[in-house]
Design goal:
two-stranded antiparallel sheet; 2 strands; 2 domains
Amino acid sequence: MCARSPQSQHILGCIKRSVASRSREVIPPLCSALVRPHLESCVQLWSPQHRKDMELLEWVQTRATKMIRGLEHLFCEKRLRQLGLFSLEKRRLHGDLIVAFLYLQGAYKKNGDRLFSKPCCDRQGIIIIKEGRFRLDIRKKFFTVRVVKQWHRLLREVVDAPSLETFKIRLDRALSNLI
């Protein structure tokens, strides 16, 4: 069982018992401020590796969105779309790609030169991150491995963003098209 989930479940239960309003204006901001930090704390380091852990985290978000009046009958994906939210899995991917962008822009100079196998550019100037090879399956879940495939799937306009703000906007647009 994931160590982060019980605490977030307790907080969500407190919100459900103590807040009278079940409107869109009340529940999502409360959950964003009080529950989500427990679900997303340091996910680039401890990212859930097993499907059951991912499902447990998503279950907490599903439970939170079901509390909103008028959305109870919808499937989770539709509730998230109506609220303008990503699934926690997409949020983890979003965070991973932002950290990778920052690394490639030189934000982590102290030990960042050893984070990935030397990134290089292809003929068109697109940044390529080399994927390492590992004998153990557990290494395939590490940040430096799981972010490589996702980075190479991004459109050139996203990867070539001139600033972090532009990258985030373009990344949000690219991720919202995945559903």
